[in-house]
Amino acid sequence: MDRFRMIFQYFQSNSESVMNGICGLLALASVKMYTSFDFSCPCLPQYNVAYGLGIMFVPPVILFLCGLILNRQSLVMLEEWRRPAGRRKKDLAVIRYLCSSIMQRAMVAPVVWIVVTLLDGKCLICAFSGSVDPEKFVGLVNVSTAWAQQLLAKVPCKDDELMRNNTSRKAVSRYLRCWSQALGWSILLILIIAAFLTRWLRPCFNQAALLQARHWSNYIDIEQKIFEETCCEHSRLFAHKCILHFFESMRQEIKLHSFSLLREGEEAEGEEDLLRGITNQDQVNKLLKTWYYEKPPLDVSQALQRHPLVQERSPLPWADNASTHSNLPRHTKV
Amino acid sequence: MDKFRMIFQFFQSNQESFMNGICGIMALASTQMYSAFDFNCPCLPLYNLAYGLGILLVPPFILFLLGFVLNNNISMLAEEWRRPQGQRGKDPSVLRYMFCSMAQRAMIAPAVWVSVTLLDGKCITCAFCTSVPVETLGNASHPRLSQGEIQRVLAQIPCREIYNGQQLIANEVAVRYLRCISQALGWCFVLLMTTLAFLVRSLRPCFSQAAFLKSRYWSHYIDIERKLFDETCAEHARSFAKVCIQQFFEGMNTDLVAARCHLPRKAPADAGEAAEKLLGITDQGTMNMALKSWHRCKPPLHLHPPALPTGNGWAGEGQPPTHLSAPQRETAAYYSWV
């Protein structure tokens, strides 16, 4: 339990870790999407290229946009970029740092999709089977061009009646798959080397500026989180005070209109205090009706004034000509 | 147990996270519903289109409405919209913010259903199999059939086992073609939705960020205020019930004493807590009478003040009840200062 809480708190506290977590989840989702997607090449000359390349490039764009949407820091960065300067200068280095880290994380899932697609090979076979040179393959040498195109277009479909037992189909398929996998591995190698170099060579250039940018980007993120939490806390207290004030004002209204015996100077027992002077069905109904028809104004300054703890606060404008600590009753028009 | 409570508290504390959770669950439910649904194309010319498009469009509508129904905030929005102005003004931007955020969350499950349906391909294959271009995809050398016959044959494309138009157009060719179109539509739809979401999210900070912060704060406030009011009312109801029941038992006790005229009203001081809790009811007959009275004649919802009936309500001040109005006026004045 403790361990779980520690892990949870670690992820929550460090926004970068949360982003890394989301990035990893998106990459996994990308692989899962590919495996569950039912790839079916149309095997028609005009449609193959569009379908194959579409499946290879459209989902990465979607995954990239998802990576940007799900990343909290993108909102932080946009707000920091668009805010008026006010009393706090804007540091473009921080914005650039945030932008580059967001982009890097958002690129992971699309790259995973493209690499998985290439290593699997189906997309490239579908897209480029019609572009293969028929001369290279035994079964397609002595065939007219148009017919060869038709046959080549049907290579990705294993169960098609024309190509079911055609050995050239398997040859073309293997040829294209070989190219596809070579391309996939090469891209992977290039990207890993690029990532490796970036990470190793970065400390050689301007490390101090980087540390500053990272610190302040973290700061902006944390500051915004804390502001939101403080607002939530504040609205909770505000609501609490507002409701208590409402119950009190209902109690006074009831006292004004009823002549029932009530104890005043004594300590109320626990339950009566909770009842707040509302002790019969009609009063409760009136309270609920008033709550709906006339919600109290969003102003708890009066409620705070009545609270004993508030005596040390600054007096309200209309109490200027009296002692601030006096609780003596006065007929002041409120 | 602790772990669940912590997770639960995390979601509860942040209202938005809770709504996001529900949204995610509905999206998963939508996928699950689709895979559990047994799709059965009717394979008849006019029914195919209706069935296919119906399965494509009706469940998303249901899921959209369900998204609103499951969202607690809908009643809050309706209440805030319809309440009389009273002493508190209404801010239309807050209402707009609440509605937009609810609508955005409710759109996710329908979008997932439509995407999954299109990417799977069965609906479009069923709906549009009669529109397949036979001239380009089919055999040129087939005996001329009337239009109605062709439609009837094409309508059977989704049902492989009864398809008898292999001479007209190969079943696999037609299915592959339709599925390709369907998947292309599906990916385009997902791309469009994602782009829209991205634009909405990224353009907002560029315009009216301050107004957004204000709307968000006050919509959270309204939500929290409603919850706190419900909690306060529940607390009040609890105390009300407790005092009401206590007074009922005390009333029973008083009646018993009046009837028997010799039992002491209170137990001796050293009788202990248990005796006090018995509230003067110490035998079977009395208890049965109390229970019967509770059932036959529940006490009114009106708590009397706990002071003695002949006692002085203003204990400590020594004023007789006849001067009731005077002290009350002073009290009213005391409170009217604030």
Automatic annotation (TrEMBL), chain A:
Residue ranges crossing the lipid bilayer per the database entry: 49-71, 92-115, 182-201
Q: Does the keyword Transmembrane helix apply?
A: yes
Annotated region Disordered: the residues are 315-334
Q: From which domain of life does this come?
A: Eukaryota
Concerning its family, UniProt says:
Belongs to the CALHM family.
Swiss-Prot/TrEMBL keywords = Ion channel, Ion transport, Membrane, Transmembrane, Transmembrane helix, Transport
The name of this protein is Calcium homeostasis modulator 3
One GO MF term on file is: monoatomic cation channel activity
Q: Which GO terms describe its cellular component?
A: plasma membrane
Q: Which GO terms describe its biological process?
A: ATP export
One Pfam family cited in the UniProt record for this chain? Ca_hom_mod
Q: How does this protein sit in the membrane?
A: Multi-pass membrane protein
Say where the protein is mainly found: membrane
Cell location: Membrane
From TrEMBL, chain B:
Give the source species. Hirundo rustica rustica
Question: Could you tell me the superkingdom of the organism this chain comes from?
Answer: Eukaryota
Q: Pfam families attached here? A: Ca_hom_mod (PF14798)
Instruction: Output the Gene Ontology terms for molecular function.
Output: monoatomic cation channel activity
Q: Which GO terms describe its cellular component?
A: plasma membrane
* Family, similarity comment: Belongs to the CALHM family.
Question: What is this protein identified as?
Answer: Calcium homeostasis modulator 1
Primary site of residence: membrane
Provide the transmembrane region boundaries: 21-37, 49-70, 184-203
Membrane topology is: Multi-pass membrane protein
Where does the protein end up? Answer: Membrane
